[in-house]
Request: fold
Amino acid sequence: APLPGADKDGRCPSTALMQCFDEEFTCERCCSLDEGPRGDTDCWARGQRGANTPRLESGGRAYPTPSDVVARMGPNAEAQVGRAAGSPAVFSYELCCAGFLGDLAPGLLGTLARQFEGEAYSPGDRRFRSPVADLTAARTAPTASGERESETT
Reply:
């Protein structure tokens, strides 16, 4: 069975790297195979046509990673794919849609894996070891003041 998609509507590949996308260059647009075998190439070029655009081993073209994408990738991304790293040409369908992060920018694996660390179900959260039934009851049970407890408490 296919995995659910990565975007809010589930129409983006489950392998998509959501930091690659914004309101103009959405995952749904950029990864759409209706545009071609590597999605919408305008998403990857972003005005850099004719720049350093080598072919990847997979056959696709890669471009330097745009600075706004580097910023969304978080700490250490500048040293891996930004100007500090010489702006390597890795920004592509393969990186952003097809799950080739480990092949194209292996130094980012740890940075991106830790980006959402410590959210709701980390060991430091009281819900970490709670059975699902307890969590559901806590969300729907009224508090002493008669209000429902928020899902984030």
In short: Strands lie at 63-64, 89-91. Helices lie at 27-30, 41-45, 67-73, 77-81, 93-96, 101-104, 108-114, 132-140. The CA atoms of residues 4 and 10 lie 6 Å apart.
